[in-house]
Design a protein that fits this description.
305 residues, alpha/beta, 6-stranded parallel sheet, globular
Length: 305
Amino acid sequence: MSVPAPGLPERVTIYEVGARDGLQNEDAVVPVEVKAEFLQRLAAAGLTVLEATSFVHPKWVPQLADAADLLNRLVRAEGVDYPVLVPNERGLDRALEAGVSHVAIFGSATETFAKRNLNRTLDEQFAMFAPVVQRALDAGLRVRGYVSMCFGDPWEGAVAPEQVASVARRLVEMGCHQLSLGDTIGTGTPGHVEAVLDACVAAGVPVRQLAVHFHDTYGQALANTLAALRRGVATVDASAGGLGGCPYAESATGNLATEDLVWMLDGLGIGHGVDLDALVGTSVWMAEQLGRPSPSRVVRALGGA
């Protein structure tokens, strides 16, 4: 039953990260043809933004060593965007060679995670990103900026909203068209989400440029998403079947499941364009490829996986 609530967006863009963020933490390498079919099934289910892969060095994320091969094999659906993550200029070179039109960079809101993940200080990361963003913009690409550890950091604890807002503003000023604020270890709660979003807006980052990326470590992902929707956010990251984690943060568990998000959006009367049955079928299929059940509550309820 659909019961709309006041003060929410009429439509939400689901930024599907299952093929990249969802699979990158898998121990066993998923065959490239399975990844290509996964993306094709997701597009057929109505998802229009599919983060396909990352041009990261294979040493760091072996699962994504096939990035160029995957994009070469991929039959791109009309009207579907296939962004890729690029960690540095070499990654951008490879992405440009593959003919992409949309890239993402991955930054940190905290000092410790920046050092551990990027081998840079919090301030130095911007010098690394600047040429990547500028070259991408000069080539006519759109650039998304991920900001990790926006709510909690396993080494530093709770993160001040103003610190997140400062990073967000610098990335927008650099040229990022959208920022995805990530609860990398899943410790955020709705009030904290509202405080971070309010701080970003107060720092001059329009809410239309903000997206949210929640992990469900403590069962707060949907509650946090609803809090973000109430603040006007209209792009939500999610992973089909609830796949994923973070290879650089051991306490991070799965992403918000796309099916769980769609169920909530349907109940609120918010448009999204996704066929839930087709999406559940896709996640059941992927669970079979991985040899384990999906953690998504909706997939388990509707698909038995």
